[in-house]
Amino acid sequence: MSVAVAVRQNLERSSWIRKMFEEGRRLKQQFGETKVFDFSLGNPDLEPPAEFLQALAAAAASAELGTHAYMPNAGYQFARVAMAEKIAAEHALAMTADDVILTVGAAGALNVVLKTIMDPGDEVIVIRPYFAEYAFYIANHGGCMKPVDAGDGFLPDMATIAAALSAKTAAVILNTPNNPSGRVYPRSVIEDLAAVLLKAGRETGRQPVLIVDEPYRDIVYDGLVAPPILDAYPESIVVSSFSKTLSIPGERIGYIGVNPAIGDKRLLLDCMVMANRILGYVNAPALMQRAVAASWRARADIDRYRRRRDMLTGVLDASGLSYAKPEGAFYLFCQVPPAKHSHDAADSSDVAFAMHLKTFNVLGVPGTGFGCPGWLRFSYCVPETVIEASKPAFIEALRHW
Questions:
Q1: Which conformational region is residue 363 in: left (phi greater than 0), alpha (psi within -120 to 50 degrees), or beta?
Q2: What is the pLDDT of residue 18?
Q3: Where would I find the H helices in 165-220?
Q4: 248 or 34: whose pLDDT is higher?
Q5: How many CB atoms lie within 10 A of CB 10?
Q6: How many Å apart are CA 239 and CA 215, to the nearest integer?
Q7: Where are the beta strands (DSSP E) in 245-358?
Q8: Which is it for strands 331-335 and 375-379: parallel, antiparallel or unpaired?
Q9: What is the DSSP string of 58-83?
Q10: What domains appear along the chain, each with residue ranges and CATH number?
């Protein structure tokens, strides 16, 4: 049986996140759950809030005719109304249900948007470090990912973005709070980026779409608030999900919100609705639409992530690892220290360091997978007992590095 070359190649370079997660499963079978410290996968482990569970139970118990039938490909009208209210509050602009499409998670939303706006050979700019799956999503629709380096503190660098923009640029993806750095991009950066994109549009004759990928919007710390973005730039689209906010990643429910000021809005939305159908999603899950429409204001216990962040930074401080302190999301991005007894740069790579930590049953994800060699990502979606128990393993691993 033949397998497509592109898919085979994707498998070979598939996500380091999944590779390390599978290693974690193997080690747990070998050594036992309590002896392995797996920080590889960003899998929210908090229980969903009671409001969501109650709304889901009510939706499942409904005897209303058509509860489990097809609905318009864009989603139920009442769910689109609720999401429009949510997006309007977060992004400081008026939205209506006609500006919203319900999707199969944020990943489904990104694929729908990219399918709609790209022709083969078009480019999409992403900022290092970036979510590893972006490369696959862009390639799915014949596009080319064009990574650019972040500036100081992992903030977008306007000069590098401006230099990368061209008439082939279909979009720029902005992921904030960022996976893997945990950085929350401030409003001033958003406004600077909007100015750069507007200028590029005037010069090239093609206005790039700003795709705001923000499933971590509600997971922020230390009094920070993720700022509005859509109101800063008319050619903008937001994609998000409830995987993190309501801690329901397996339920695959998300949305697309289109800036009402975007050019050719009606055509764009009609084409995205069609893309939602022909990509095979058809529509977002009916029960989930009902549940999140009734409970979207609820939140999982986000403060537990802050406590875990502080616990894990304490462990890393004790072991001597440097890191970028996260302002949001639930990852620690750590700098790989130089190996003490080697002059070979390969021996001090992020992959080599991840493999070294694995010998002490500590699992992290090499920064290479995020376009950022020399760093390692640890997810703290793990019980507090795992973080606490990992401290001796981290210290011993660094002692031998």
A1: beta
A2: 76
A3: 187-204
A4: 248
A5: 15
A6: 8
A7: 254-258, 322-324, 331-335
A8: antiparallel
A9: HHHH---TTTTS---TT--HHHHHHH
A10: 5-46+301-399 (3.90.1150.10), 50-295 (3.40.640.10)
DSSP strands (E only) in 109-250:
123-128, 144-149, 169-175, 209-213, 236-241
Q: How confident is the model at residue 1 (pLDDT cuts 50, 70, 90)?
A: confident
pLDDT at site 7: 80
- Rounded Cα distance between 60 and 265, Å, is 35
> Residue 146, class by beta-carbon neighbours within 10 Å (0-12 exposed, 13-18 middle, 19+ buried)?
middle
Q: Which two tokens stand for residue 394?
A: 């981290």
Quick: pLDDT tens for 320-331.
999 999 999 999
Q: How far, CA to CA in Å, does 39 sit from each of 22, 83, 318, 322, 386?
A: 12, 32, 17, 16, 9
The residue among 107, 74, 81 whose CA lies nearest residue 269 is 74
pLDDT of residue 16: 78
Contacts of residue 379, Cβ cutoff 8 Å, sequence gap at least 6? 39, 40, 41, 42, 43, 330, 331, 365
Amino acid at 32: G
**Confidence tier at 342 by pLDDT (50, 70, 90):** low
Residue 214 amino acid letter: E
- Integer CA distances (angstroms), 155 to 126, 151, 175, 197, 247, in order: 12, 5, 11, 16, 27
Residues of the chain with pLDDT > 90: what percent? 87
Distances (CA, A) of 220 to 24, 151, 305: 28, 21, 9
Q: Is the dihedral of CA 373, 312, 331, 360 positive or negative?
A: positive
Tell me the per-residue pLDDT of 242-286, one tens digit each, with 9 for 90 and over: 999 999 999 999 999 999 999 999 999 999 999 999 999 999 999
Q: What angle do CA 224, 228, 234 make, to 5 degrees?
A: 160
Tokens standing for residue 347: 């021996």
Sign of CA dihedral 374, 379, 385, 386: negative
Q: Is residue 25 helix, strand or coil?
A: helix
Q: With cut-offs at 50, 70 and 90, classify the pLDDT of residue 13.
A: low
- Among 217-221, 256-260, 277-281, 344-348, where is mean pLDDT lowest? 344-348
